[in-house]
UniProtKB/TrEMBL annotation:
Lineage of producing organism: Bacteria, Bacillati, Bacillota, Clostridia, Thermoanaerobacterales
Organism: Mahella australiensis (strain DSM 15567 / CIP 107919 / 50-1 BON)
Keyword annotations from UniProtKB, A to Z: Cell membrane, Membrane, Transmembrane, Transmembrane helix
Protein name, as recorded: MscS Mechanosensitive ion channel
Molecular function, one GO term: mechanosensitive monoatomic ion channel activity
Main location as per UniProt: membrane
Keyword Transmembrane helix: yes
């Protein structure tokens, strides 16, 4: 029995053309190496050309340049992948023309499966040409907040504050809020006790706002005190707002809160906070 198995395996192995097998293997390896070199070289050329564009007399916006770099690299990558796959199949002796004909016959079935892919690619082009957002913009896409890291033909990558990267298919993007276009607004609410003189408090807030405008160039206009916005259980809440350069609103809010607290401490204005009163129990004799 074992002799029969050994003979059968020997006949199979003897029928293999090892020269042709090695030749095909080398061809596949060369194709992969050339594809990697083309992608690497192409990415380098794209980067150089777009960087040169930024140094011209009338340069493009830096974020738009980064977006174009991302899109062009994505197009190059997919094109090289497609050509490499076709070349490898041809090297292995797979009849590529027959596959293309078969694809034509089964095109309808494939089309239904590829609808999402086509939708992703088309939406990617619209994002680029309509300039909805660019690499580096802080956006909210369907409830996902973060900075745009990459825009490809098929997907967009958004990095959140915690460093998490969300990969969103372009075709699923329905609503976008771009926080980087135009000035932003810093909003600070501060609560004081009901016994506090509100007119005096508003004057102090206005002084803090003027100092912020003078000392911080990212504040685009003198902050405005809107007045009382809430009468709560703990006290009266006042609001101050400030127009800031894009993406500076959070830093301005933090600095405003710090300065307001320091100003209130200096003027003896109390900011209400929960207090715990312990009443010792008196034991009856």
């Amino acid at each position: 029995m074992w002799d029969n198995i050994v003979d059968a395996v020997g006949q199979k192995l003897s029928g293999i053309d090892y020269t042709q097998l090695v030749s095909k293997g080398i061809g596949v390896l060369l194709t992969l190496i050339i594809a990697a070199i083309v992608i690497r070289s192409g990415n380098f050329i794209i980067q150089r050309v777009m960087e040169a564009q930024s140094k011209r007399k009338f340069p493009m916006d830096e974020k738009r340049i980064n977006t174009l770099i991302s899109i062009l690299k994505s197009i190059l990558r997919y094109a090289v992948y497609f050509i490499a796959i076709v070349t490898i199949l041809d090297t292995l002796g797979v009849p590529v023309s027959s596959l293309i004909a078969a694809a034509g016959i089964g095109g309808l079935a494939i089309g239904f499966g590829a609808q999402n892919l086509v939708k992703d690619v088309i939406t990617g082009f619209f994002i680029l040409f309509e300039d909805q957002f660019a690499v580096g913009d802080y956006v909210s896409i369907d409830g996902i907040n973060g900075t745009v890291q990459d825009i490809g033909l098929r997907v967009t990558k958004i990095q959140g504050f915690a460093g998490d990267v969300n990969i969103i298919p372009n075709g699923s993007i329905a609503k976008v809020a771009n926080f980087t276009r135009g000035n932003n607004t810093a909003i600070v609410d501060v609560t004081v006790s009901y016994e506090t003189n509100l007119d005096k408090t508003i004057v102090i807030l206005e002084e803090v706002g003027r100092a912020m405008r003078e000392e911080h160039p990212e504040v685009q206009d003198t902050p405005k005190v809107l007045g009382v916005v809430n009468l709560g259980d703990n006290g009266v809440t006042l609001r101050i707002i400030a127009k800031t350069l894009p993406m500076n609103q959070w830093a301005v809010e933090r600095e405003l809160r710090k300065r307001i607290k320091e100003a209130f401490e200096k003027e003896g204005i109390e900011i209400p906070y929960p207090k715990t009163v312990i009443i010792p129990q008196v034991k009856k004799a």
